[in-house]
Request: fold
Amino acid sequence: MRSLKRHDASDIFIHWFNAACWLLLLLSGLGLIKNERLNPLGAWLPDALRALFGGGSAGGAVLLVLHEVVGVLWVLGFLAYLAVNARGAKYFLKEIFSVRPGDLSWLVRKMGRMTVGPLLGGRGELPPQGYYNMGQKAFAQASVAGGLAIVLSGAVLLLSDKLLPAAATPLIGWAVTLHYLAVGLVFAGLLVHIYMAAISPEEKPGFRSMFTGSVPEDYARHHHGLWVEALGKDDPGSK
Amino acid sequence: MSDSETKRISRRDFLRLAGASATAVAATAVGAATAPEAKAAPAATAPKWESRLSVCDMCFNRCGLIARVERGVITKLDPNPKFTKSRGMLCARGNAGVAQVYDPDRVKTPLLRVGKRGEGKWKAISWDEAIELAASRMQDIAAKYTRCGMLFSAGADMQSGFVSRFAEAFGSFNVTSHESLCLLSGNRAFVDTFGDVPLPDVKNSKYVILAGANRLEALVTPDSMDLVSSMGNGAKVVVLDPRYTKSAALASEWHPIRPGTDMAFMLACAHVIITEKLYDATYMAERTSGLDKLSAHVADLTPEWAEGETGIPAADIRRMARELAAAAPASMVYPGRRTSDYENSTQIRRSFAIVNALLGNYDRPGGLVPARPAGLKKVAFEPPWYDDSPPGRVDAKSVPLLFDDEGSFVLTREAVIKGAPYPIKGWFVYKTNPMATAPERRKTREMIDQLDFMVVVDIAMSDTAWMADLVLPAPSAMERQDPVQALQSGAEGACLVWRDPVIPPLYESRPVFDILKALAGKLGLAEFFDFDIPAYRLKQLAAFPEAAEILKRDGVFYPPNPPLGGTDGQPFKTPSQKIELFCSRYADMGLDPLPVYQPPKASPDAARKFRLVVGRSACITQGSSTNNPLLSEFEPENLLWLNEDAARELGVRQGDVVQVESPAGKGELKALVTPKIRRDTVYMLSGFGSISGGLTHTRGVGASIVELMESRFDSICGNSAIHETFLSVKKKGAA
Amino acid sequence: MSTQKLAMVIDSAKCIDCKGCMAACKQANGVSRGVWRNWIKEAMPPLENGPAGSKKLGHGHFQPGACMHCDEPSCIQACPTGATYKSAADGTVVIDPKLCIGCGNCIKACPYGARFRDPVKRIADKCNYCPERRAAGLAPACVDTCPTKARVFGDINDPGSDAAKLLAANQGRVVRVIAKQKDTRPNMYYLASTAPDGWAVQPVDPLSFDFLTAFVAPVVKWAVGLSGLGVLAMLGRQLLAGAGGAHGPGGSADGADKDAKEDHHA
Reply:
């Protein structure tokens, strides 16, 4: 069985770099939200996270520094990726934003099958998918758009006590709102991504490819038929 | 319709609080629906500061303070709780002492004028050059114009005594201070009545009449604080002021008296007290002279008559006189401090002194008490004799009863301008600012034009320094070591303070003592400055060997304070050896021995309708602190207080810029349209409209009050008279 | 456990509006130009009948104030990070400058205008009862410096403190200034009476925060909830289906993969 190269070293790095940063940012971020009207899970969560660093608002202050530092590193990481693999980045963006006819139907039926079953998702063949299936594309779109929103609002929040005058406080308030919304929505998608990528047995070869960089050919043919087709038109084994 | 209210705490709430059961209050705090954070704030650490004792310099009160110094920088000045005269406080200006030390506008090096006088072009020179130059110029003036050709002016400062010493050693009789722009009339009147200048014992007083003295803004320790606590204890304070000042606002009673009519009020009070026999007859017979003459003098000066002059209802005047007498001897007409108002200001204060005498309150709790001997020893010296000296001060004999050691600044200035009776060509100025505090600023400029040499020693480039030939940087009081000064605190008697440096001098500043010592060296007068401050202090404290240690430890020393009443049976220091209701000295000199009321003069010019009065804010000190970075936030500019009705007639609205003019000069400033002043009166703060380029906050800001004030003086002692000016006011841009 | 309840008891009749407290606070706490941690309000005096039918200004009143360290602070409800909170140890409402991000939500949430965004520090600031001075055994700067000692500060949970004694001696004669529809239970007690009245305002949240709490937060909760439910359903199917193939019951296309898989094992 042939293996097809799907991701190169920089892709693999940026994926896990992104995941690690996101996890740290999410945890530190949850530790930063402490308001009765906002606490996503209750006051115990920020309290517990803050307790890791001394507790109270002092612990929160450490979390804030962590959050800001990791946030900046996260952005720098992406800028580095763009510098090193601009071509890959372009390909990625092109793929995730190309929605073909039949993609949405694939998505709805796939989701239905995986949750409720054929009752909701029907039977029979699903339309072939490209490099990324529609589920992956939807999550990627959300990640990119959400990520941008998070970074832009995050930049405002980073600079709020360092540069911005009092007249900018409405902007800062909206940055908090946007930051919360974007993180929340991407996180909702993240739950599905983690299941699909790491827990669902169906995608195991895909999960492995985030380490090895390659997928088995038959797996690729079944899951990303259009991609393999396009490959066949070029040199075999190249992207 | 108000959005909020003051809510009286319900009994249940109150018991929960004041019942002080820990659980009950905790329950209130935690059980509420919006439970606050159940976590303690991180414990703060005490600042790592060193605490050093000193004494404030932002006004003449000299409140004891504790300076907090962190890594060589003063970060805060706190009250010294052992300094009881201040009642444990440090006012806004005291707190701004830090801002004064670190003011970027401070003069940093000796500066020599290179352009024209007042142009503001300076060259930094070395101290050696500066001393050499000053000494040689003073030498020149002494040679050409005798030693009295040098005028020395020093402000209220703990080293000003050294300026007088230098002047004496140098051989000049011409020494002035701020006092002849301020308090001399009151001193004159009380000295000529009681033989000394007594102090009010406000703390124990039951009834105080404040005529003009805006004590709750023109802070005097302990009087200002004691007025508030006395009122809290049921004492009555009556304020007579054409302005609704903060003293007026908080007094038991306020009357918007017509400016210049205080004497009428006082004489009518005397009338009531005498005709209704509300005085202690034995006391009056034994301790006062002239009661019969006074009686005749005030026979027709009824409260009804006084109502016509003052605008205060006769019934109120009569009632207040009776209340005053009923509370006697623990009652007083507050003597006040600044008495530089009218050309008969001394006689006005004579009427104050007379009413006090009628109350029998001398050396009694709640009355006027003699200054306590502080016990400081004078460090005397034999001044040299100079054969060519003129007979006396240049302003001698200009008025009948000049204080010889004070003279009169405005009359000295006239003499300098005229060059008669003899020329004065040099001026040494220390820490006083006549360009901002002497009336008729153009005359001060004219005076300066006559001079060959003018040197100013000051911490900031004041308007006076701006006009000098040589400016020498003085350190702040926090950087100085100073001799002992005695302060008086009403019935609590005297206390002694001194200063040791809290931080080393900044920039190239040098205390005036060092400057005078160096000059003395160059002028062959070294023997009169052959000591240092520590040695001088020990001589001052010769009567109290323990004082030095106590001063180092506590920042203040209290000499033994004899109880009140010690002067009973002792003669007064007057010609008759009694309290002189009828002033024999005045009679001998052809002056009115009893104060004769003259109605205040009307404005000579119909276009100038508004009498300008002078006053204070608790946040600044006359001309010297308006540029302070902290204080300028409280008083960023001066405003012309204009009565609402008068403003309406002039078409002036709140905040409009108005143009004001008098025969002395003109100015522009924003109007404060207010019901708090009479229709016929206007008011503005001093210390604005500065000309000096070294005053970032006040240059060109607001109007200069001294530019507008005409220069008049009291006919008896030469004290400045600055309430005699009428202004025209019109809206800027109006026809 | 004894907790402190630090409070200010003020006899505003003694206040002479000398601004000493404002100067001391600004100097002690490095407050920037243009903003103030404390204030003195002046009541407009009443107009009374004067002589000859004229009107005369009556008694005046000055009212020192600052953050009132309320028991139910409306400001802490507006803070997204909990940088401002009420300390359980001493009852003060604290701002942790290291955690405050300067969003400004809390500024208008105070009925007394006690909070401001410092133009230099760029974070929220207000009276904090001078904790560093207290640690050094000193009173807050404003209390220490006052000429008439109008401000009395202390732990009103401690019956021996000056503040508690003053309250006890003035039972039934103590008032607080509150906003009409919102009593945040301020801990600044004025003896007898005080003026001006009617200046406290309703606390206001910025629109961005209202939107966040009322709309965004529930939407996010729903999105995450639904997503989580979906994941649980998928997981459930996966576990229940056992080792029955990656794709579960499906069509022939799916079946073809099984062959591919077996080929792989071959």
Observations:
- Chain B touches chain C through 80 residues (CB under 8 Å).
